[in-house]
Every structure is written in structure tokens, then in C-alpha cells.
Amino acid sequence: MTPEAPWEGALRWALAAGSRSGRTAKQFIDDLAGRLGVRSP
User: Fold this and answer.
1) What digits encode the pLDDT tens for the residues 1-41?
2) Is 40 helix (H, G, I), strand (E, B) or coil?
3) Non-local CB neighbours of 24 within 8 Å, separated by 6+ positions
């Protein structure tokens, strides 16, 4: 994964959700952690 990949993914996630809230950010982190097979903080 490139250093830019999480940033780009987060922007796409926020645009799809229609929000840039803290809740949306947490949902993105939870989803990313699941895809990487690690535990979300």
C-alpha cells in the first residue's frame, strides 16, 4: 500500500457516505482494519 492509498481511500469513503464526520472516519478505519486483517483501535 502506498502512503497515499489510505488518504485516497478515505476521501472516496467520505464522498460515498456524503459526510466527513468523525463517525465516517471511524467507519473507514474499521473497514480498512478488517481488510488488512488487523484489529481496529
Assistant:
1) 676 788 888 888 888 888 778 888 888 889 888 988 998 87
2) coil
3) 13, 14, 17
